[in-house]
Amino acid sequence: MVAERVPPGLILDAAAPEPLHRQLYDRLRDSVLTGMLPPGTRLASTRVMAAELGVSRNTVMAAFNQLLAEGYLQGRVGSGTYVTRTLPDDVLRARAARPERETMDRGRGLSRRGAKLVATPVTVARTGAPVAFRPGLPALDEFPLDLWSRLVARRWRDATPDLLGYGDPAGHRPLRKTIAAHLAVARSVRCDPDQVVIVSGSQQALDLASRLLLDPGDRVWVEDPGYLGARAVVAGAGAEIVPVPVDAEGLVVSAGIARAPKAAMAYVTPSHQYPLGVTMSLARRLELLEWARTAGAWVLEDDYDSETRYAGRPLAALQGLDADQRVIYMGTFSKVMLPSLRLGYLVLPPDVVDAFVAARAVSDRHSPSVEQAALADFIDQGHFDRHIRRMRMLYADRQAALLHAAHRHLDGMLDVRAHDAGKHVVGFLPEGADDASLSDRARDHRVEAQPLSGYYLRERPRQGFVLGYAAVPERSTRAAVLRLAEALRDGA
Predict the structure, then answer these.
(1) 146 C-beta neighbours (distance < 10 Å), count
(2) First vs last Cα of the chain: how many Å apart?
(3) How far is the C-alpha of 199 from the C-alpha of 187, rounded, in Å?
């Protein structure tokens, strides 16, 4: 039997949420079941396949071992690895005869908007215990669980009928009042409680804003590089993504105007740009607001990581500078408390509040009322502010531990830069390095290092890693950096 090389069309996506070995397993398994790899086909060796796909040999071996264990492949000593001959021919013929549309689980019967939504890359939060250096996670080991449990238990124990029945789609009124008061002091946000709408995290906030404020074909500025989840929502709304570059002062507004002067919306992370970590300058903020006023556009301000700032006070929000009611401000408690809490908020211009509340009711009625009440208690009693202060000091220490270990063990392989806010840093690789393949090697060494290039759309991608440190205790940082160093040396 003539040896096969890599099956035609087999492509792995390093920016996808699934590990590369799982992607390879899925594609080889589908190729067997659809008859693309007939029974008895001899596969390329793990070494050859790894070289052609640009991944580590361990990745290919992991996929092969799973397929061998499940009976799709069989090994012959001294001969190689083959597609098993024991699969029923009638089953394979039936699968091969199906229209291609039916073999694509995520494509069957989808609308054009739905197809765009699922086809847009998005970083999906991984489940399970925190792994170094997974970005986006707070210090789960330092959250005051006993205190939070007591607050929630008390609310359940003394629950009134208004907490047990259907709640206000806009959110629990005391929580909205508390958030408005907190934002006025901490972020210089100008609003009253009637402008606050509680949502199930920032992703739902993005979804509601896109569905209510964008029509198919509208153009939307997004930061390049930028948050993948925002791009997916914009694409799902049928809008056109307009990548706008980011420099040391944040979004380059002049570039956005040159590319799409009549865009309907701009999505920005001005206080702590994701993923580069830069802060939008005052000049750029004013320039962006002036463009929004003259263009009649919306500005969606994602203030996801502004609370954890180590150098001075948190910066004032863009919304506080907005005199024309063009800014929609969004925040989340997932990043500062617990991701599983699934509570966030929107601060809206008064004239669109009713529309957002109606859409919130259609979407999923309201967020859990008891948890909203417990969160209001957590903030009102001062626990939230104390927790934030503790986390600022803790995260500063954890970032310092990562920087110290990186400078000692990654010198010449990864240039890790300090940030003055947030829960991640960016490390830049030497010229000519491939961050996607090196990220795969890091995963083989039990380290998650998100490839920076995956966050780019149009600009020339920088090669590097996004390294989350907030969820990694200092005692674990050095060992994780040593594993990352080993992975980078293996990939050199």
Answers:
(1) 8
(2) 35
(3) 19
Q: Select 20-109's CATH number: 1.10.10.10, 1.10.10.60, 3.40.30.10, 1.10.10.410.
A: 1.10.10.10
Residue 63: what residue type? A
**Coil, helix or strand for 199?**
strand
Rounded to whole angstroms, how far apart are CA atoms 401 and 469?
Answer: 9
CATH of 160-381, picked from 1.10.1040.10, 3.40.50.720, 3.40.640.10, 3.40.1620.10, is 3.40.640.10
Phi, psi for 135 (deg, rounded to 5): -80, 160
Handedness of CA 435, 440, 443, 445 (dihedral sign): negative
* Whether residue 383 has pLDDT greater than 50: yes
Across-strand partners of 330? 302, 346
CA 480 from chain center: how many Å?
22
**Domain boundaries, given as residue ranges, for the chain:** 20-109, 160-381, 386-491
- Which uninterrupted H or E stretch holds 390? helix 383-409
CATH number for region 386-491: 3.90.1150.10
Tokens of 469: 């440190």
- Distance CA(278)–CA(248), nearest Å, equals 6
What pTM value is reported for the model? 0.75
Classified as helix, coil or strand, 315 is coil
Span 65-103, pLDDT tens digits:
888 888 888 887 777 888 888 765 554 555 555 544 444
Whole-number CA gyration radius for the chain: 25
d(CA 405, CA 482): 8
